[in-house]
Amino acid sequence: MNRQMRLVLLSLITGIVLMLIKFIAYFITESNAIFSDAAESIVNIVASGFAYYSIYLAAQPKDENHPYGHGKVEFFSVFVEGGMIFIAGSIILIKSIYSLFSPQPITNVEEGMYLILATSFINFAVGFYLMKRGKALRSLTIEADGKHLQVDAYSSIGLIAGLLIMKLTGLAWIDLALSFVLGTFILFNGYKLLRKSISGLMDESDTEVIEEVVTILNANRKPVWIDVHNLRVQRYGQELHIDCHLTLPNYYDLNKVHDCISDFDQVLNENLHSKTEFFIHADPCMPECCHYCTVENCPIRSEPYSKHIEWTTVNVTKNMKHFRDR
Questions:
Q1: Residue 114 class from Cβ within 10 Å (0-12 exposed, 13-18 middle, 19+ buried)?
Q2: Over the stretch 143-167, which tens digit does the pLDDT of each residue have?
Q3: 125 — alpha (psi -120 to 50), left (phi > 0) or beta?
Q4: Which is nearest to 149 in space by CA: 16, 320, 289, 282?
């Protein structure tokens, strides 16, 4: 069992235990707000179960039918988790509206608060750990699972605060208000996860990774790398696929071009914290490149070097050499 699967298994076991505690709290209090919190725990369990399977599938090697591997399933996992959260939020809002017209008396509020407080501490601790490990492992599934648990912990803290106010004031409507607020909060977080997963499934460019790539390239820039453009980054699970155009001196032979591309590949693979596959297209330089080219003793230079062009997320992603962007 790999590290990611162990982390998801931790989330799954935690979710089952906390769900049981929350439903015990609901049954002894009959609180709509506590029911809202318990209902989300069911989502945690279902999402963690699917995440466990997706981590297993993403770890499978490339094959003829999946030449880029199985990493995209992580985006689907996040989509399922976001969808489940969205559905849970909708159910909570529906029950809140129903209870508005058919209220139930609330009992044993203090005991219920203690149980929910215990679950919030556990959820926050496990969620924090999963998010930290998810970022280190570059796993969207682990990170999303950790974020979900932390959101659950925050909502539980808000729930406790509201129940305490209700106990002190005796205002029963606070329970319904809390349930409605929690449902809306859960809906919003489900939407954010859905948005993130759809972006990945639609191959939306990963701006954070592009910024990281540009920083690494500027720090390790070589004179013969005259410019980089048409840079695109796609994430497949823990792996990155990067393609770009690299402008090189047009008098280089094929062996020299191959060496330059290998250096470019090595620089990024040594500094990025993900396994990276490159597709680099070599472009020959043109006379218009001379004013920003820093190659020394160039035999074909048509004008002296006069301008430094910093590589940015704007000019490296455009499909044009940098002199065309003046």
A1: exposed
A2: 777 877 887 787 778 778 777 887 7
A3: alpha
A4: 16
> Element (H or E) spanning 250, and its range?
none
d(CA 301, CA 303): 6
Q: How many CB atoms lie within 10 A of CB 214?
A: 20
Rounded-to-integer distance, Cα 218 and Cα 267, Å: 11
Of 3.40.1180.10, 3.30.230.80, 1.20.1510.10, 3.10.20.310, the CATH number of 3-201 is 1.20.1510.10
Say which CATH topology domain 207-325 has: Alpha-Beta Plaits (3.30.70)
Count of CA atoms in the C-beta half-sphere (13 A) of 229: 17
CA 116 to chain CA mean position, Å? 28
Domain boundaries, the chain: 3-201, 207-325
pTM: 0.54
Q: Which SS3 state, helix, strand or coil, does residue 234 take?
A: strand
Find out whether 124 and 150 touch, Cβ atoms under 8 Å.
yes
Q: Characterise 138 by phi-psi region: left (phi > 0), alpha (psi -120 to 50), beta (else).
A: left
**What is the four-CA torsion angle of 306, 312, 317, 323, rounded to 10 degrees?**
-10
Query: In what helix (H) or strand (E) does residue 102 lie, and over which residues does it extend?
Result: none
CA distance 254 to 275: 26
- Cα separations (Å) of 105 from 27, 109, 180, 182, 191? 12, 11, 17, 20, 33
Question: Tokens 């390790």 appear where?
Answer: 220
Digit-coded pLDDT (tens) for 162-196: 778 877 887 777 777 877 777 787 778 777 777 76
Mean local confidence (pLDDT), 194-216: 75
Structure tokens at 258: 């191959």
Amino acid identity for residue 170 in this structure:
G
